[in-house]
């Protein structure tokens, strides 16, 4: 499903739209943007249209676009939602490189964590980061993630094996740190 509009300090999370597909495809064609993502080849227009259709009706995903001053800069989502055990995985892609290291990713992660815990009632949110991606690791820990393990030699990239960091955020710990302990 597409998430509701959420407004943070720096960004607004909004609904994905088919007219954004050319921008999404430009991001997927940029090897610097995708170097730490699990897929290696850009999707086609048809594949991206199908992905949007699937996300719109999915009960296991909630996705948003990330807008900075009304400019589309990325995507963020909650995936693999397990409604019984109340956990999910979080993912983010900042496609516009000129916005990297500006705090917009942290703002988007915090908005989706707030939604996961306070609106969806999740108990835990998981995240996975390719270990060479130090900026994403720093962002995740700043947003409350704690390391729970490492998948060693998870991906083969650029002629070398890459480990993948596993982090989790627990509801009560996140609320205590980011909501002053109350159920805001």
Short description, anyone?
With 184 residues, the chain is an alpha+beta fold. It has helices at residues 21-28, 31-34, 45-57, 104-119, 134-142, 171-178, and strands at residues 6-7, 12-14, 62-68, 71-82, 87-94, 124-130, 146-157, 160-170. An eight-stranded mixed beta sheet has the order 1-2-3-4-5-6-8-7.
Could you characterize what this model shows?
The chain is of the alpha+beta class. It is built from 6 helices and 8 strands, in the order ββαααβββαβαββα.
Question: What topology emerges from the helices and strands here?
Answer:
Blueprint: E1 6-7, E2 12-14, H1 21-28, H2 31-34, H3 45-57, E3 62-68, E4 71-82, E5 87-94, H4 104-119, E6 124-130, H5 134-142, E7 146-157, E8 160-170, H6 171-178
Parallel strand pairs: 5-6
Antiparallel strand pairs: 1-2, 2-3, 3-4, 4-5, 6-8, 7-8
Descriptive key words:
34% strand; Aminopeptidase; alpha+beta; eight-stranded mixed beta sheet
How would you write the strand order of the largest sheet?
A: 1-2-3-4-5-6-8-7
Topology, number of strands: 8
Low-confidence residue ranges = none
Strand content: 25-35%
Main beta sheet, described? 8 strands, mixed
CATH architecture: 3-Layer(aba) Sandwich
Along the chain, the helix and strand elements come as EEHHHEEEHEHEEH
Q: Give the C-level CATH assignment.
A: Alpha Beta
> N- to C-terminal separation?
24 Å
Q: DSSP helix count? A: 6
Helix fraction by DSSP (H/I, runs of at least 4): 25-40%
Shape: globular
Which superfamily, in CATH terms, is the homologous superfamily? Gcn5-related N-acetyltransferase (GNAT)
CATH topology: Aminopeptidase
Count up the domains.
1
Radius of gyration: 16 Å
Structural class: alpha+beta
**Averaged pLDDT, please?**
93
